[in-house]
Fold:
Amino acid sequence: MTPDTAAARRTLADRLEAGGALSSPALRAAVEAVPREPFLRPGVFVSTGRRRWRPVTERGADPTEWVELAYSNRSLVTQLNGHLTADQASAPVRGFPTASTTAPAATVRMIDALGAEDGHTVLEIGTGTGYSTALLRHLLGERNVGTVEADPKVTYDRVIATHAVRRIPYAWVQRTKPGGTILATVGTWPEGAGLARVTVAADGTADGRFIDRSTLPPVRPEPLAARAGGLAARAEAAAPRRLAHVSPTLLNEPTPAILAQLAFPSAKFTVSIGEDLESIHYLATPGSAAEVADDTYGWTVHQSGPVPLWDEVERILTAWQEAGRPDLTAVRLRITDRATHYWIDGHPALRWEHAAI
Structure:
């Protein structure tokens, strides 16, 4: 028998409101009205440590546990290793998360930041489990919310992306009405993702800034072990080591991590633990790699390839520190049909340009 989750929905709304994520009465009504558990089918994975995951499905789980999971304010893993879902596993399995639901607090914050109003039409890029789509449709009506598969001839008042991207495609700008808003998570590194909001102008450009950090994953994150192993192999063939001038732990903070990605938008970055329990940071682009490891001499750098990646990261992080460590919200962006420009006002060393995609 399917349990009545109305009380659980009200409790979730209370927690989100108390935590500052939920302030709109209309959005609260949507949270209370839209059940979350149907969007978790066929099931989720719960971590048991050491990269092992216990499958939990609606049919196999205790009803109380299923409801508690559904209305917890947490992201829930829905896929492992690019293909495995919870209904395909009967016991704990090892693996890497490759798909998940967004925590309800992050979902409602994004919807609130989108600023959608009655009469607006919204295009959601990446439906995911469908929970955010259901909330939007409760707010605006089913006919006013489309997905990425919507008619390309139609323009929208609002565009929202439910997964992280390396940059906002110009095609999204083309799909948005003048005066409309695009809300997207930019950045795919573990701690380096920011929520960017831009407004589209009549001339086909879009201007805005980062408004907050974000925790949305990329549409298909790479398994950590495979990624770290590949970078480690490349770093072994690198030039002689040197001491790092800036600690790589700065890249665990959203703002410096975002700035480093703006310099190398195609770069992959990960952190792993070595055999002696030392922390090792890997950075790589096609053809170049850098390893920054914590050893007895401090942070040491090993680089390979034509581009000295860590040299440029150090330049950026030093410029950011000399600028007074401005917050992520100081980063502005402008999107045209030719390029996306990023900058922090008053600091020429903190400017980047990416060709349009």
Observations:
- The chain has a mean pLDDT of 86.
- The longest helix spans residues 309-322.
